[in-house]
Amino acid sequence: MKASVVFIFLSVVGVAEALVHAWQENAFTTYWSHVQFSPYASLLGVPYWGLGVVWFPLVLVVGLLVTRLGRDSLRRELLVLLSVGNILTGYLWYLDLVVIRAFSPEYVGLYLTNYALTGLVVAQNWSSAVVKDFAVGTIIGIVVGVFFGPFAAVAFGLAGGLVGAVSGYTSTR
Left if phi > 0, otherwise alpha if psi is -120 to 50, otherwise beta: which for 104? Predict the structure, then answer.
């Protein structure tokens, strides 16, 4: 099966996960209600479930456009977009586990879906200089972050991947 078709499928799964999560949060039916009532449950007034409802349809539409409805290969430029989502999920991991001290499979499913989408783009474009810069940026970020603790290693790694992808993409243009 083509990676672009799997990407589109995973994007649809992400949309479904985000909608279910939004419904659960909005309907107050979740067992993690202490998360939704936390002062950390929104970004600039937008609840986190709302970010998922916007993010995954955006990734789906961009994926459909970039791959011409799944007919073309995944393009390395998707790494920049997905890295933004990875940085947000890194921050959300920190909020969930350290600040709020909550853990739920629904959150983890959303985060892992974004990581899987990133992994598909990396796997398909491994020989590209952009992907190599992404990998080098991620590794350097992790190494620097280790000196500041495990969450810093993740944060620096995610940010390093984004910087590497952007610099690799701009240097090839």
Answer: beta
Q: What is the mean pLDDT of each run of 10 residues along the chain (173 residues)?
A: 89 92 66 57 75 92 93 88 87 79 79 92 86 83 81 77 77 65
Pinpoint the alpha helices (H) of the chain. 3-26, 33-36, 48-66, 78-94, 105-124, 129-146, 150-171
Q: Round to whole Å and give the CA distance between 124 and 77.
A: 12
Number of neighbours of residue 69 by Cβ within 10 angstroms = 11
Q: Are residues 144 and 109 in the same domain?
A: no
Q: Which residues pair with 42 in a beta bridge?
A: 47
pLDDT in the model for residue 118: 92
Sign of CA dihedral 120, 124, 127, 133: negative
Task: Kindly report the pTM of this predicted structure.
Answer: 0.81
Other residues' Cβ atoms within 10 Å of the Cβ of residue 52: 27
* Domain that includes residue 93, residue range: 3-121
Q: Are 97 and 65 members of one domain? A: yes
